[in-house]
């Protein structure tokens, strides 16, 4: 059964690099998300009241967290994240899930309390949605160049729909058009 699933592209191969593409996308998406976070006042609340760290350190931690979240996005969605028409929706949904999970994961690490209230809470929500939307929209664009080497000389040796027939020597070459 695993050979069948691998032949039809269910499990991404090592050359597809969804984790690297997700991390790069998460890093790029951190800029607009950080702008939304700061514009609505959530950054100062999180830095000063929740994390109790200097603002530059908090900014580095947030960018690192968004980069790791991007890698997680690539790990969870894999090939589905490559959908150019629906990727933004996958990303926005993933951002929403992160917004729901962030207080549960972060608060025990920083000592409890509340994350934000009022306008800062809106900034917190907008930050995650903007991040997810941008990450989902950019993932196919970042992932495409990283897939190099998947199709060498018109054939893929281990992955994709032609892998099973290539393994058995059943694949016929189409004649070249002149």
Topology:
Elements: H1 2-7, H2 18-39, H3 42-51, H4 55-77, H5 87-110, H6 119-146, H7 163-168
Query: What is the residue-averaged pLDDT?
Result: 75
Question: What is the general shape?
Answer: elongated
Total domain modules = 1
Count of distinct strands: 0
Q: Spans with pLDDT under 50 lasting ≥5 residues?
A: 149-157
Number of helices: 7
Helix content: 55-70%
The major pleated sheet works out as: none
Give a structural overview.
With 178 residues, the protein is an all-alpha fold. The protein has one domain. The protein has seven helices and no strands. The radius of gyration is 21 Å and the shape is elongated. Residues 149-157 have low confidence and may be disordered.
Main features:
single chain, about 180 residues, mainly alpha, 7 helices, elongated
């Amino acid at each position: 059964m695993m050979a069948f699933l691998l032949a039809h592209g269910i499990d991404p191969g090592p050359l597809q690099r969804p984790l690297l593409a997700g991390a790069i996308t998460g890093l790029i998406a951190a800029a607009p998300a950080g702008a939304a976070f700061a514009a609505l006042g959530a950054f100062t609340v999180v830095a000063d009241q929740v994390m109790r760290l200097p603002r530059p350190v908090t900014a580095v931690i947030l960018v690192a967290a968004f980069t790791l979240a991007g890698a997680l996005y690539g790990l969870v969605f894999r090939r589905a994240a490559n959908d150019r028409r629906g990727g933004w929706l996958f990303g926005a949904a993933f951002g929403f899930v992160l917004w729901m999970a962030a207080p549960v994961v972060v608060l025990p690490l920083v000592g409890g309390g509340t994350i934000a209230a009022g306008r800062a809470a809106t900034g917190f929500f907008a930050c995650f949605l903007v991040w997810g939307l941008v990450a989902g929209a950019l993932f196919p664009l970042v992932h495409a160049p990283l897939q190099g080497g998947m199709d060498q000389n018109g054939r893929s040796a281990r992955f994709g729909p032609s892998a099973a027939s290539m393994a058995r020597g059943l694949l016929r070459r189409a004649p070249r058009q002149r």
